[in-house]
Amino acid sequence: MRIFKQYTKAKLYFSPRIKNLITRSKEYPVTILESPTGFGKSTAIKGFIAAKKVRNAFFMATTGGAEENWQRLICLFREVNPVFAGEAINIEVADNDSIGDLAALLQKSACKEPTYLIIDNFEQIQGEFHEDFVRALSKHEDENLHFIVCTRSLEGIRILPADKQNVLIISHEELRLNEEETKLYLEENHIHLTPAELSEVVTYTNGWFEAINMQRLHFLNTHTFGLSEDLKELIQTVIWETITPPERRGLLGLSLLDSFSLEQAVRILDFPFDETEVEKLLRLKEFIQKDSGTGRYHFDYILADFLSTTLQALKRDARNFIVNHVAEVCRETGEVDKAFTLYQDNGNYAQLLELCLNVQDFSTFQSKELMVRLERVLREGDHDLLLKHPQALLNMALPLFLVGRESLSKECVSLVEEGITKHLYGHQDDLLGQIMFIRIFDSFNDLDLMTRYAGEAQHLLKGKAKMFGEGDSKWSWLLGQTSVIHLYWTKNYSLLETIQKLEYFLSLYVPLTGRRGSSALQVLKAERELVRGKLEEAEIYSYEARYLAKSHGQIDMYISANTKLLRIALLKGDAKQFLEIKKDMEKAGEETTRVDIHQMIEGAVNCEPESGLMDHLPRWMRLLDQEKNLQSYAAAPFYMIAHLKWLLSIGENLKVIGLANGALPQVIQHNFLFAQIHYLVFKGIAYKRLGNRKEYEACLKEAYAYALPDEVYYPFAEMGEELHQDYIRFVDRETAVKLQAFYKRFKENGEIIAEAMGGRATSLSDREKEVAHLAKQGMTNKEIATQLLISAETVKVLLKRGFVKLGINSRKELKYIESL
Q: How far apart are the first and last CA of the chain?
């Protein structure tokens, strides 16, 4: 490997002119280095960091998609502080409001020393991250925090004239090395040229740093300069022709991966060297870079492009050999999802089906990609080959069902049933048992049917279903939501019976899943006592549920149990317990990157109107009515209830009626009785506010008819501020007394919690104050939205909430508010 040993001896050159350019970054929150690959952006930054010896962290964007890159980028934010990174997990970089949330979060930054966070290869995610992402990075006021963004182009990055004081842009023309700088760089690396030779180098490189560097390497190996302006030709001469065929195959294999570990490099390169020697090879600063957050390696895009082109030019058999070798290494190193992708893209379905991915393995894919890839297996895989792999088909069936592709799930099951009919398998009972297990999900919230299938599955399987691997899984949809009563209480006069049925079902189901859902019964019992106002009993069951969930590593059920404890603390007026439970939930959230868990936590801690916390309802829940797949949230009713509750709190009465009417058919279809009661209560309140007493009374009568046979008082007590004067109109005196007492607990103890949380939000929040101040200056909603990086709809909502708190009705009255 002669060339690489010489290459690593190169001295880093950092010209005074470029040094002065980069040094200006200390005066700006954000600096953008814009140039095509090879102009030395990364080299210049590394030179600056090395010279300054400042606190820093590098992030290398990859082609892995917006979500994957965002999760990796959070590692970079840990350089600001861990709390900052923990809060950043809850932000999705997708739309105006999430960008606004990021800008608001950065306002909290307070680095104690100069800190530089470098985002390299940003062009890989420019089209997927919001166009205002860089603007959001520039909105902080921390003089010690500096972002440096390296990109090939400014396309897709919006910088407004007003942002120029916060964003420094250094273009590729400024990064070109002039003749004197080229001469000095080569002399730093012990290459002294005649004027004619220097002129020749300058002519062929045109100040392009990577081209100058490649010419340097060419000279070290041949004592001549490559008479070419084509960088790929130089790579061919300088690198490719100096390494052995096995080394070439290794580099081609590594190029198939967006990033790779040292262990994978050792196996793929297959060198007769030890790990230390391979690691030396991977320290090639200009060609292979290491992500400080993950410890994984990435190719420089110039070399990556060359390797990709070279790989595609190989004969099919040679290319297949390399792809299959890399896929095998990925399988051996635990990255079976990548092995799956490589085998599929190479058409190697025999090896793909041998992988036999389980439910946990599939959870690494995004839902849309998972649907596409699994459908390709069924469409492209040979029919007879598919029949030979029944376990792989059943492992595919459950994830397909859970991402909403029931027809494809049933197709997988039908193929296995065909094989059973043809007597192709020697372990038919096991396969039939897993088919029964899948049918449990297909029968969701019909506890009689679910119990029947669970019993048949347990009888046939004698243990855990093979489709489950070890550890936690995001596929816990059957029982792992914030509330169990929302899902399984399906008709009035049946809540006690539901508990009995769920208890029997769980005794059959839990052993099949590796203990998933083991605390669901305690959660449901806690909820039953809570909705009746029996707090002591509810608390006992909640702590039992929390203990079981923690013992079995079920974070979703742990959060569900804590949600009950949070409400109990509120109803008891126990501020200390409330804050402890809230802190415990937030701590649990810091230990996982699962978005569904963060949503559960946000939903739990922000959805209690009596605590004053609804003023801080998370963005995704506030904008739920704009969600394209609204039905999916109607089928997860806890979140829709929170959203409707929030809309009521800001006076959106017509929207409450419209959304409740739109969501009711979905919850009726799923027999979600608890959600139906809430929707009817919310609709009734909205009608009452609009002066429609007839519809108000109709909604409340229907809600009481569903709820009272099972002593479900909670929704009526929670909304008692609007309902308590009319309790006696709808229920008997004894029940009215119970409801009044329950409501009184909500009201009085909620005020205690609100005070402990910093007081009920009667004053404007910082964001509401910003919006009101700009509106007072005469700016339109659209202009305010552009300046604050939020949507015009959010501006409208914030203004409306501000008006309520200020006791005014219009923009005209803002001019009389001196505090703005």
A: 69
Q: Give the angle 681-686-690 at the CA atoms, nearest 5°.
A: 145
How far is it, in rounded angstroms, from Cα 50 to Cα 45? 8
Is 97 within 8 Å of 64 (Cβ atoms)?
no
β-strands 30-34, 288-290 pairing: unpaired
- Residue pair 105/84 in contact by the 8 Å Cβ criterion: yes
Identify the CA nearest to 572 among candidates 752, 736, 695, 721: 752
Secondary structure of residue 717 in the 3-state scheme: helix
Residues ≥6 apart with Cβ < 8 Å to 33: 41, 44, 45, 148, 149, 150, 151, 170, 175
Separation CA 556–CA 536 (nearest Å): 23
| Residues 600 and 560: beta-carbon distance below 8 Å | yes
Distance CA(265)–CA(285), nearest Å, equals 16
CA atoms within 13 A of residue 7's CA, in its CB half-sphere: 23
Question: pLDDT band at residue 641, thresholds of 50, 70 and 90?
Answer: confident
Contacts of 120 (CB under 8 A, 6+ apart): 41, 42, 45, 58, 59, 60, 61, 150, 289
Length of the chain: 820
Looking up tokens 């490719």 gives: 240
Is the distance from CB of 678 to CB of 526 less than 8 angstroms?
no
Strand 55-60 versus strand 167-171 pairing type: unpaired
Backbone angles phi, psi at 32, to 5 degrees: -110, 125
Query: d(Cα 102, Cα 80) in Å, to the nearest integer?
Result: 14
More confident residue, 216 or 28: 28
Q: Please answer whether residues 358 and 395 qualify as being in contact, where contact means their C-beta atoms are separated by less than 8 angstroms.
A: yes
d(C-alpha 585, C-alpha 598), whole Å: 9
Lowest mean pLDDT across 177-191, 646-660, 796-810: 796-810
pLDDT of 126 over the 50 cut? yes
Half-sphere exposure for 559 (CA within 13 Å, toward CB): 26
For the entire predicted model, the pTM comes to: 0.68
Q: How far is CA 751 from CA 6, 122, 584, 688, 754, in A?
A: 72, 48, 22, 25, 5
Strand boundaries in 478-634, DSSP class E: none
What would the two tokens of residue 29 be? 């929150």
φ and ψ at 45, to 5 degrees?
-65, -45
Read off the amino acid at residue 742: F
Angstrom CA distances, 780 to 279, 783, 784, 786, 811, stand at 58, 5, 6, 10, 10
Structure tokens belonging to residue 788: 């604050």
- The C-alpha atoms of residue 367 and residue 58 are separated, in whole angstroms, by 29
> For residue 171, what are the β-bridge partners?
34
The two structure tokens encoding residue 800 = 């409306």
